[in-house]
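ESCALATION

Customer reports they have been waiting on this structure for their group meeting. Please prioritize. Original submission:
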Amino acid sequence: MNRLKNKTCFLFDLDGTIYLSEHLIPGATDLLAEIRRQGKHFAFMTNNSSSAKKQYLEKMKRLGIEVTAKEILTSTDATLRYLKMQNMKKIVLLATPEVEKEFQEEGFTIIKERGKEADCVVLTFDLTLTYDKIWTAYDYLVKGLPYIASHPDYLCPLKEGFKPDVGSFISMFQTACHREPLVIGKPNHYMVEEAMERFRVKKEDMVIVGDRLYTDIRTGLRSGVTAIAVLSGETTEDMLKNTEDVPDYVFPSVKEIFDIMKK
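Update from on-call: job pushed to the front of the queue and completed.
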């Protein structure tokens, strides 16, 4: 366990790891306070692209956790960074109004009608998804436009059950137009690279904590970062018995990580 105590940067998933809907998971605030007390870094690295960063800051404050914008890393952040690197400025975007505003504030032109010139289709966790949005995106996808998705999660965990996430939307478009997107969020490396830049740390100094094997844990395995699975969200003990994405550590929740860190 000394291996964990020597880490200097902790990257936490949110849904199913720090909270479920509007309910903090026991031990979360204690663990974050202990990391700060030790002079180490933490950030929330979430695939959930349904909310703007401002909304995450407001939610964390409402839950009693004080964080800065730097300490919230979303798949939207990584998607924006990638699009800028590729010089893609005109996008067909499926997103909530709050996230759409983030793209506009970063200088992107949102294409909402069929038959216009566009650089790519961007799929995020759009809780306002309509048939017209689906049809518009489909029309551009069948014409071969580059296709990007913020993340691949099939379900978003709630306090009671789940709701369909971007992975479910990806499956819909795959059925309709036989296209698969470039996925920017976890489990790919883009968000880890963003965290390394923000906090000026190396991979061996970092640890990823999350409740999903195919995103959180796979990110650690692919990126060479220590990975901890918590059983407070999507992953169950039965899933752990039948997975190739084997975490370095498994705990019931973040409370057990706090117990280790405070010793």
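Sent to customer with the following note: The two ends are 10 Å apart (CA to CA).
Escalation resolved.
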